[in-house]
Amino acid sequence: MVKRIGRKQLLFFVWIAGVSYLLPLFGNATEDESPFAVAALSAAAPSEHLLGWIDSRKAQSLNGSWKILVDPMQVGTPGSLFGGWATTRVPENDYQLLEYSYPSAADIRVPGDFNTQVDELLFYRDMVWYQRFFDVEIVPDKRYHLWFGATNFEATVFLNGSAIVQQKGGYVPFSVDVTEHVKADQNDLVISVNNRLNAETIPTGRTDWWPYGGLTRDVLLIETSEAYITNAQLAQAETAGRINGHVRTFGMPEGTPVTIEIPGAAAKHIATVDGDSMAHFSFDAEINPWSPEAPVLYDVHVSAGEDLISDRIGFRTIETQGMRILLNGQPIRLKGISTHEEPIGRDGVAYSYQDMMTLFTEAKALGANFIRAAHYPYSRHAARVADELGLLLWEEIPIYWNIAFENPDTLGIARDQLSRLIQRDWNRASVIVWSVANETVYSKPRMLFLERLITDARELDGTRLISAALLGDTRRELQFVTAHLAAYGLTSDVPSAREKKVFEKVLESVGEQAPVVGSGFDLVITDPLGELVDLVSYNEYFGWYYSRFIADQTGVSERTIRKLMLAFIPEIRISSAFDKPIVISEFGAGAKAGNRGAGVWTEDYQANVYRAQVKMIANSEAIQGITPWILKDFRAMLRSLGGVQDYRNRKGLIDENGRRKKAFYVLRDFYEGPWSGVAPN
Ligand code: GCU
């Protein structure tokens, strides 16, 4: 029986329904009832076979002016009470309530980080939404791929209202086939991206560099034939004049011929697609090897079916032999410098070919032949520029400091990031090192995590060296250094009588192990990770941090310790427990450009640390490479000292505007003088 409901009851029910709908906003609704409950997006994970050789493909740039909405409470996520911001909507009449609008949103440049383009976002570490429209001249029997140079650090891509793909982990490219989603006009492309980082992400939430967020690299729409070449790797075999490699294809039947051509080397070879959509090859070619002195690049063409891709590739070999590094079979010294991916003279992230050309040209002016591109993968332009300038390159993923080594999701992000970096740059002759970690403290989970990454790297690309910036047992080392410094101090007129008493106590506490003055100090690298890498790389801050630690421990003034340390550093002998080349991957000191005097933060003190460090290095047979920290001052949230740092790390040899400090010339003189030749045999 249907019971008529009076008007009053009806209004009461409508009111209850309305309130119960809004209640969760204020009440403590359970998670799944909350109107902010986020719909689990069913976007597919990106394919692990990277679409490579990007710069030779038919591509429509989607760089330029986009719209941006800031969303610190993630109300734009589909399924939230506010309806989500995954498509562009405009009110159809005066009664339609919308609480977001892309057409009236602010403009932002892509590529580039959002932190330095929007004043309020400088320190922002959360979600933003990007939107733009684009048209496509759709050609039948072609496929269309959205390609992103990087999205920092987690992104979801929506096209014409559909969730297309999610990518976790920044700094590396990904692409997705959108052939079924694109239309000729007004494609509505929306991307949510956040630069949140935490204990489980890669990198973690605490980094000594700026967590630049957003669409930080190029965005392209790439057109391929129905069946196409996904990627290809070529490398010079151990024997000169022999090229090995493989081509990965998509949609090509087994038996399809694949032609690899290097006209400048009188080489043309035909391989065949196998049952795994791969074509493996090995053929002779008249190659002049690539080197910093002669960065020879060859035009290489790979064709199969209707597809043709091209690249400019250099060929060389890199290997280690005991304590030596051999480039094209000859011993070489890595006269390096570390960098971050920031341009000279402009705020924010570097993203263009020109940005990298300017930055790496300054490294060449230093007399460097090697760059440690710390601490994460740079844009594809970096290795391209290094190939052209003749700079050897160390590329790295941000397994930095205290990583959640026991978290499988964290390992998944790290493996994905390393795999994409290698698949993107495996044809770059300049790249000689893949680095899998920086200053990670020893533990069993850390060893398992890094061992997995090292295995991945060797399986993906056996032609390059593996390294990681190791961390010593600093506490133990500092105890030894303190004892040596104490012995040194007793023969010096720098310490006061009181301070000499302290040094005597230190030596008494060390007992029979008390060092003999002038005997030098042997620092032996024993990190077990040294067993798994090809280059034993080591960060040390003698002359900077260690002086403060020792002053704090002993109560001797930092002034005395710093003065003694500068005299003591040349007596340090660094070696390792492994018969492998050693690279000092970091040393340095901070200085604000223009500051003069004897104390910290002056150019003079920074130059004195470099003078002491290069003396130590010149005395060492074991050190085959150095990448001092760092070419250019860079933004860092850890570095707040007003008037000096102002949220920049000041260890650069140049400041953010390219102003060279005195230490720049100390290192340049070292590279052009004592370290100008190659390593002795
Ligand atoms: C660490 C770390 C760098 C950091 C540097 C510094 O070793 O690897 O990322 O910027 O030291 O303290 O300046």
Automatic annotation (TrEMBL):
Pinpoint the Glycosyl hydrolases family 2 sugar binding domain residues.
60-224
Q: Which InterPro entries match?
A: Beta-gal/glucu_dom_sf (IPR036156), Galactose-bd-like_sf (IPR008979), GH (IPR017853), Glyco_hydro_2 (IPR006101), Glyco_hydro_2_AS (IPR023232), Glyco_hydro_2_cat (IPR006103), Glyco_hydro_2_N (IPR006104), Ig-like_fold (IPR013783)
| Pfam families xrefs | Glyco_hydro_2_C (PF02836), Glyco_hydro_2_N (PF02837)
Annotated SUPFAM superfamilies: (Trans)glycosidases, beta-Galactosidase/glucuronidase domain, Galactose-binding domain-like
Q: Which UniProt keywords apply?
A: Glycosidase, Hydrolase
Instruction: Identify the domain of life.
Output: Bacteria
Glycoside hydrolase family 2 catalytic domain mapped to chain residues: 321-530
Q: Keyword Hydrolase on this protein?
A: yes
Q: Which PROSITE patterns match?
A: GLYCOSYL_HYDROL_F2_2
Q: PANTHER family given for it?
A: BETA-GLUCURONIDASE
Q: Give the family from UniProt.
A: Belongs to the glycosyl hydrolase 2 family.
- Protein name, as recorded: Beta-glucuronidase
